[in-house]
Amino acid sequence: MAFPTPPACLAQRDLRSAVLTADTDAALLRIYAWMYLARTADNRILDLFRQGLIKGTVTGGQGNEGLIVPLALLADKSIDVISFTHRGFGGHLIWSDHLCDHLNQYCANAQSPTKAREGNIHHGDPKNRSLPMISHLGAMLSNVIGATDSQRRLGRKAVGFTFFGDGGSSTGDIHESLNLASLLSLPVIFIIENNQYAYSTPVSEQFTAGTELWKRAAGYGIEGFSLDATDPEATANTLAAAIEKVRSTSRPLLIEAHTLRLRGHAAYDTCDYLLPGESERFFSRDPLPKLRARLEAAGHTARLTSLETELNDFIEACVQTALAAPRPDPAGMEADLFAPDSPPLPWKPEPATPRHVTMAQAIGLAHRKILTERPESLVLGQDIGTYGGAFKVTDGLLKDFGRARVFNTPLAESACTGYAIGLALNGHRPIEEFQFADFSTEAATQITQNAATYHFRSGAAVPLVLRLPTGGGLTFGSFHSQELDSFFLSIPGLKALYPSTPQDAFNALLAAYEDNNPVLLFEHKGLYRRGKFDVSWDPHYRDIWQPAQRLAGDFATIVTYGEMVHLATEAAAYLSSEYERTFDLFDLRALAPLRLDAIRASVARTHRLIVIHEGRLTHGFGAELVARLGEEMFFDLEAPPLRIASLDLPVPFAPELESAYRPTKEKIVDRIATWMG
Ligand SMILES: Cc1ncc(C[n+]2csc(CCOP(=O)(O)OP(=O)(O)O)c2C)c(N)n1
Ligand SMILES: [Mg+2]
């Protein structure tokens, strides 16, 4: 259905500082039109929610328009980056698309920009650098930092805008992001929307900084100030100057905007926690009537009345259009989980002659190849620069490729991963090293809630490689030894590779790199230096997404991955010499998506299944393998499947305890021998 034509007062979505100073009334009328649109549409959305026509809830921006409208009008929407919060509806309306697109989102109909997979304000427009917010407050800041950096690297003089409330200001992500932006000297304006409440909790119960949150800027070595966002004219003038300054200096800025939340937290909020007279005081500062009075006094009453009539009619026509759209279709949901594959990158067939290297060196070699051949690549992580990484995988890369492309990050896994997501959204392809896989739990929100869900909810691709030095057996204790594969892979939207040889590790990094999705690359620390092997360019590198058969036999099918491939191979050799039983042995290599065809064919022949992995037994990866193969092949099996895994404990420290905890060659032999009967 065609969308209603917007009235002329919405023709302009831009406001440059020159217009603001040369013809103030024209500028204010433009601001007023968008503020009126945002307020009236927000109120109408609340009505529709109360009528049951909009689901979930709605968190209106009523009272925040004095900030968000001037800001969105002043931003350069052809290059800048932004991520609005749940109070930024007016900003969404200005940044891109038609009011109907935004209402379709709220109505969660078939035309919704998120295909109705997300509701209310959880949309954006990634292709126009408006990054959709996830609910986790604070998480979007680092995405804006990354996408802004990407724009600058592409030679565009962009500014990033990112917002958080007084409530969000207490999250760790806010601190990590402010520090990161300052450290990288990126032109991002951080705006605190201080409306004095986080849901029902007043600022006095959140922090002791009162109304001076902006003073935190000094702690990050950046400038900061506060402004009264209930005065749109002053706000527009202040923001115009601030944006120009940040654009030219490339230094971040922290602005605390004193703003309002006139309708409480959300549609269901009864606001009975407000102090007597507080609501009246809020409404007395409402920026919309204040601006109207200013324009009336300047003689624009007739213009205001006609503009409001036009906008009311337009909003009503758009509401009817959105309500008439068909309901969404569940078809295609699963196909959209991952961004589609693209053809292989045009890799040079190098190194053509084999290099005799360890697995750590093989991964370093793959980095070197990527950095040499792919200008959009970047490598980041803790101590990966001069030091070459905790396991020396990135040794020498900084020297050869420079600090702009190979750089150390502070201890801020969440913001650094969010930053990498932002880079990836804008066309760069970052490779992030976690010092130990264990520390990726610090970035769990960015990995599992943000990156993993991105394509499904927005259609945007996040090509990102997260390298995870994994696993135990090295007496590193419980915080440096874990297998987190089943922890992460219970979340849809992540791909995962887990190579067991230097050549596979080399291939895996190339395959992960060119994938259009977030890929977890598990690298077992015990394999980093377990001998040197020949590694060279392999035109079949994409086969890493399929299991590899390492042994052929007929008694049972062993499925394993990582370091366990080596222990299982030794155990199988022992069993075949002592018991004359031979095994098919598959190295899974790709944990997600699972490709089990070759394994099914093997089980159909051997009629027995053994799964061996280093992660814990309960909820471990083997549970999925056994369940899936058992479900599909129940009548092919002649014995119950055997699972060999670690104990359901934290990884213990002492070598004696650790080898009691995890599978060893001896334990694998014993378990299989007992099972064979
Ligand atoms: C990390 C996190 N914890 C809890 C919530 C649930 N929640 C949603 S909005 C909100 C209050 C946010 O307050 P503030 O940041 O001041 O923004 P405001 O709603 O006032 O604009 C809370 C607690 C969340 N979204 N994210
Ligand atoms: Mg608040």
Which key phrases capture this entry?
40% helix; 21 strands; binds magnesium ion; 5-stranded parallel sheet; 677 residues; binds thiamine diphosphate; single chain
Strand tally is 21
- Number of discrete helical segments: 22
How would you sum up the major sheet? Answer: 7 strands, mixed
How would you classify the helix and strand content by structural class? alpha/beta
Q: How confident is the prediction overall: mean pLDDT? A: 97
Looking at the structure, what is the overall shape? elongated
Query: Oligomer, anyone?
Result: single chain
Question: What amount of the residues lies in strands?
Answer: 5-15%
Helix content: 40-55%
Low-confidence stretches: none
Q: Could you say which small molecules are bound to this protein?
A: thiamine diphosphate, magnesium ion
Whole-number radius of gyration? 28 Å
Major sheet: arrangement of strands: 10-9-11-12-14-13-19
N→C terminal distance: 69 Å
Structure characterization notes:
There is one protein chain. 40% of the residues lie in helices and 14% in strands. The protein contains 22 helices and 21 strands. The strands form five sheets. A seven-stranded mixed β-sheet has the order 10-9-11-12-14-13-19, with helices on both faces. The protein has a five-stranded parallel β-sheet with strand order 1-2-3-7-6, sandwiched between helices. A five-stranded mixed β-sheet has the order 16-18-17-20-21, sandwiched between helices. α3 packs parallel to α4, α3 crosses α8 (232-249) and α12 (359-373) packs parallel to α17 (502-514). The longest helix is centred in the N-terminal third of the chain and has 27 residues, at 24-50. The mean pLDDT is 97. Bound molecules: thiamine diphosphate and magnesium ion. Thiamine diphosphate is lined by residues 87, 135-137, 165-168, 171, 193, 195, 197-199, 261, 265.
